[in-house]
Amino acid sequence: MKVEQLSCALGAELTGVNLADAARDDGLFAAIRAELLRHKVLFLRDQDISRADHVAFARRFGELEGHPVAGSDPEHPGLVRIYKSPEQPNDRYENSWHTDATWRESPPMGAVLRCVECPPVGGDTMWANMALAYAQLPQHVKDLIAPLRARHSIEATFGAAMPIEKRLALRAMYPDPEHPVVRTHPETSEKVLFVNGFVTHFTNFHTPANVRVGQDYTQGRTQLLDYLISQAAIPEYQVRWRWKPNSVAIWDNRATQHYAVMDYGPCHRKMERAGIMGDKPF
Ligand code: SIN
Fold first, then answer.
1. Which residue, among 257, 266, 263, has the nearest Cα to 242 in the 3D structure?
2. Does ligand 1 come within 6 angstroms of the Cβ of 273?
């Protein structure tokens, strides 16, 4: 296996590996897992593997989970279809910086995304290293956010376009969890800035230490949160990947955010994602 770093921030391309083999080979799988912890997102070309092999490889990391809105392949539970077509280009969007499913109490530890079909140009995906984003924050911001917690919401995001009854049912099924604003990676112990597009507000900003008058609360509620959420958009923290059919990305969802660039015209873009269950952030 050869490993080539793709940006200074994160991401490496693996060559000389077939993921169907890696699903059956303990040593090869362990080597890929170690590279994932090192680089946070791994890329591979020419993975002409079956859906069963895709699922089998992802299962090596842990149990898979579906998505309440996107839906899974019925023959391969846990393999979520993210399909765009010329008829329905915008029925869902991923062009918002996010960490997958932080609206769960225990968001996924990672994902294995395979491209089935893509536009001839455009439709790239970008990832950002949120451990680096945390490390680069000014010290006074680190001090301010150290104790903070934030509410993440499926209702306010996937639910927003639903009729009220469906939205409330979704919320009842996935009550908005609270997570630390800075999480500790359970394997590398890195500190990670853990707010993204699913966050609605801080839950414990409004304390006498932070708020003297209403204007202070507004500043904490909106400006600080916007500032933190915008960190993923800093180019120095990113890598960008151009898809071809049978390209694969494997990412550590505990340390990254990603953004699928929706810059292409009416076209098919078919991606299949195996999401791997994770731990409760601390
Ligand atoms: C995702 O947001 O998980 C999917 C990214 C993509 O479709 O490129």
1. 263
2. yes
State residue 89's pLDDT score: 60
Q: How far apart are CA 99 and CA 196, in angstroms?
A: 6
Distance from residue 140's CA to the centre of ligand 1 (Å): 33
143: left (phi over 0), alpha (psi -120 to 50) or beta: alpha
Given 100, 104, 152, 183, the catalytic residue: 100
Q: Which residues of 237-267 are buried (b: 16+ CB within 10 A; e: fewer)?
A: bbbebebeeebbbbbbbbbbbbbbeeebeeb
Q: pLDDT digits over 46-80, tens only?
A: 999 999 999 999 999 999 999 988 878 889 989 99
What's the CA-to-centroid distance between 100 and ligand 1, angstroms? 9
CA–CA separation, 176 and 202 (whole Å)? 12
User: Which residue carries 């699928």 as its tokens?
Assistant: 260
Q: For the sheet containing 199-202, what is the strand order?
A: 178-180, 149-152, 199-202
* Ligand 1 atom showing the smallest separation from residue 260 Cα: 8
260 lines ligand 1 (CB under 6 A): yes
pTM tops 0.90, yes or no = yes
Residue 34 DSSP code: H
